[in-house]
Amino acid sequence: MSTASLPDLLAAPADDLLVLTASLVAVPSVSRQEGELADHVERRLAERASQLARTRVGNTVIARTELGRERRIVLGGHLDTVPANGNAVPRLEGDVLHGLGSADMKGGLAVLLRLAEEITASEEPRFDCTLAFYEGEEIADEFNGLRHVFAERPDLLAGDFAVLLEPTGDHIEAGCQGTLHLRAHFEGERAHSARPWMGRNAIYAAAGVLERLAAHETDTVLVDGLPYRESLQVVRIEGGVANNVVPDECTIVVNRRFAPKYSVDEARAQVEKLLVGADRVEVINASPAAPPNLGHPLAAEFVEVLGLDVEPKLGWTDVARFASRDIPAVNFGPGDPDVAHTADERVSRASVEQCYAAFARFLGLAA
Amino acid sequence: MSTASLPDLLAAPADDLLVLTASLVAVPSVSRQEGELADHVERRLAERASQLARTRVGNTVIARTELGRERRIVLGGHLDTVPANGNAVPRLEGDVLHGLGSADMKGGLAVLLRLAEEITASEEPRFDCTLAFYEGEEIADEFNGLRHVFAERPDLLAGDFAVLLEPTGDHIEAGCQGTLHLRAHFEGERAHSARPWMGRNAIYAAAGVLERLAAHETDTVLVDGLPYRESLQVVRIEGGVANNVVPDECTIVVNRRFAPKYSVDEARAQVEKLLVGADRVEVINASPAAPPNLGHPLAAEFVEVLGLDVEPKLGWTDVARFASRDIPAVNFGPGDPDVAHTADERVSRASVEQCYAAFARFLGLAA
Questions:
Q1: CA B333 to CA B95: how far, in whole Å?
Q2: Best of B139, B220, B234, B284 to disrupt the A interface by mutation (most A CBs within 10 Å)?
Q3: Which of A179, A101, A85, A95 is nearest to A133 (CA)?
Q4: Confidence class of residue B2 from pLDDT cuts 50, 70 and 90?
């Protein structure tokens, strides 16, 4: 592997999962520019898994079996990546692929593409399957492909259990925490900075609240026995008019990540209590948490068949979108979540191959 | 006055000081765009005070008598204004002129233009006079016309006493406070906001220092019996990478205005003590204070002839530039400093006429 050049590898039919991942990394797909990769996925499905029913909604591609099985599993992977950080070109080093999106989540897309082929080749898959390759996950929710399909063609995403192939390393991540962004405005009155007593400094008005937020200790909340460690961070602060003017406005953006024990409204009330002193607080966005749902038979079976540890998912993922529609969902995909969105994003051969094998086992495909 | 239209008034020879002020307001001269107004001033001096020696340096115009008097008085007015704020077009309402720059400081320029004519017409002016119409006062020091002339042709600004025609209302403002801008950097470490314990929040690192600055009480410092009320303001704050990232940097800009009792280094040391906890502090700019110099014979005579109250100047002005070259200087000009840089900037007829009369008395011109 390590001696062959990448172009040579990409020219060969990609039956190797790591090479297939590299070929997907080689097609740039920063959010809002997923068209080429969606075309690529559609073409490959047409060539190698033509029996699947394919539908395209925007740059989201949905492929489904129609075997009449009693239960349907939905597997989802987003096509988009965050912007490149000097890592746009994939690079194979032995059994490790480096490059933008290798972990988050083109390794997962490679697993999905291989599963599409094997499901159609298999004689007795245990479930009907829906594979969703979707756009717009890394940016504002309004661009999310699953959101669009749920709105326009919810039938395409119906199912009994869902797995999102977000990178989770060698364990399953159950549920997800909710996320809430609030913007707090502090107001003052402008004045020349040589005569500040003629005005009121909005940055000073924010100082006490900032100090309170900095000192706040967040909880770890147990749900289904899983420890959801919450967080509360000021992620932005902005204030100032000119260097000789007492500022009349200061704004902070607070991000709270909350355990599935709480609703959005409860989480919001908790943060607003800490923001007392602000002149105005507005919600920028709010996404509910997803319960782990480990008591659900399919979720329990998935955990048992894979035989892996289950940990709580701390970041928000689209499992919450399924959970809010009463479809239990978990996260399980190749790659280390800690390298996602970093310059040295990478994924190993073992990680993609073990992930594929786990899904094949669960779905009842040939090993 | 109030019934004539502005164009009619501007077409008439402007012997009326308020109309002359209006004609200067009618020529836009936002900082870095003073060329047209400098041309206008040069032309008027050529037509009406041709005996004065004129020199142009950039868009700064210097006009000087060469009478061989023992002492020379330098009078300065800046040509530029801050950006318009819905007040670009001058408007006369009875005896009040509204418009950008009317107070800061085209009323003062009108007084200077009239003085230029009367000095050349006068038989016995008491002093030689230098009139400086200069560019770039309202913006960064590097653009300041006096700075350029002091650097390139210091002989043009030599003198025994200087007056800056900044708006001071009906009193004289002595000396000026120094001004110091420091930028303090607080560092952290990026992490996903769902896992903040993997990083360190730079905004939280700044919170304690902000709280300390907000609580800080500044002094009023007596110099030559004048109360210089100091100030210390955070005028800018900035931090944040993305709404889901623990920020790794937060910067604040602090502006300290300090009494002429202190040097720049002393003022800086005082602020740095309050910034303990910052990872790095840099000086953005520093301008020394100017002592009131009221003991100087010409300053004392100016105060006595005018018979007006003397107050300390809290904002920084170019008097400090003269003071640092051992030329005592004070501020005295028409207009209320509190309306400078506001949408309703204005100046009254009485203000410009009384200011002119005061200078005429001091310089020994015909009333």
A1: 17
A2: B234
A3: A101
A4: very low
What are the φ and ψ backbone dihedral angles of A230, each rounded to 5 degrees?
-80, 170
In angstroms, rounded to a whole number, what is the distance separating the alpha carbons of residues B189 and A353? 33
For residues B319 and B299, give the distance between their C-alpha atoms in angstroms, rounded to a whole number: 12
Q: Is the bond into B198 cis (omega within 30 degrees of 0)?
A: no
CA dist A86 → A2, A138, A343, B114 (Å): 21, 18, 7, 64
Tokens of B132: 């400086």
Residue with token string 């720059």: B101
CA distance A113 to A116: 5
Q: DSSP string spanning B102-162?
A: IIIIIHHHHHHHHHHHHHHH-S--SSEEEEEEES--SS-GGG-HHHHHHHH-GGGG--SEE
Question: Does the structure's ipTM exceed the value 0.85?
Answer: no
Mutate to test the interface with B, among A201, A212, A213, A233 (most CBs of B within 10 A): A233
Q: How far is A202 from chain B (nearest CA, A)?
A: 9
pLDDT of residue B342: 86
Cα(A182)–Cα(B285) distance, integer angstroms: 36
Task: Please name the residue ranges forming H helices in chain B.
Answer: 6-11, 17-25, 35-48, 107-121, 145-152, 202-215, 264-274, 297-306, 319-323, 349-363
Q: Show residues of chain B in contact with A242, CB under 8 Å.
A: 235
Any catalytic annotation for residue A137? Answer: yes
Tell me, rounded to whole angstroms, the distance of Cα B194 from its chain centroid.
Answer: 49
Largest CA distance in chain A: 82
Under 8 Å between Cβ of A62 and A157: yes
Instruction: Calculate the dihedral angle through the C-alpha atoms of A32, A36, A41, A47, rounding to the nearest 10 degrees.
Output: 160
Q: Which of B197, B231, B240 sits opposite A237 (nearest CB)?
A: B240
Instruction: Check CB contact under 8 Å for B235 and A240.
Output: yes
**In whole angstroms, what is the distance from residue B222 CA to residue B220 CA?**
7
B103 has pLDDT over 90 = yes
Contacts of A196 in chain B (CB under 8 A): 231, 233
Q: Which residue matches tokens 């005592």?
A: B328
Of residues A136, A229, A100, A137, the one with CA closest to residue A175: A229
What is residue B189's DSSP assignment? B
pLDDT, tens only, B171-220: 999 999 999 999 999 999 998 899 999 999 999 999 999 999 999 999 99
| Alpha-carbon torsion angle B136, B138, B141, B147, nearest 10 | 40
How big is the CA angle at B58 (ends B56 and B59), to the nearest 5 degrees?
A: 80
pTM: 0.82
Angle of CA points B351, B352, B356, to nearest 5° = 120
Q: Is A80 in the active site?
A: yes
Nearest Cα neighbor of A301 from A293, A313, A312, A291 is A293
Q: Where are the beta strands (DSSP E) in chain A?
A: 53-57, 60-64, 72-78, 91-93, 96-98, 128-134, 161-164, 172-174, 178-187, 191-192, 220-223, 226-229, 231-240, 245-246, 249-258, 280-287, 310-312, 329-331, 346-348
The pLDDT tens digits of the residues spanning B28-84 come to 999 999 999 999 999 999 999 999 999 999 999 999 999 999 999 999 999 999 999
Q: What integer pLDDT is reported at residue A1 of this predicted model?
A: 39
Contact B222, A226 (CB under 8 A): no
Closest to A340 (Cα-Cα) out of B239, B250, B244: B244
CB B164 within 8 A of CB B290: no
Give A238's contacts in chain B (Cβ within 8 Å).
237-240
Query: pLDDT averaged over chain B?
Result: 94
Residue A290 CB neighbours (<10 A): 26
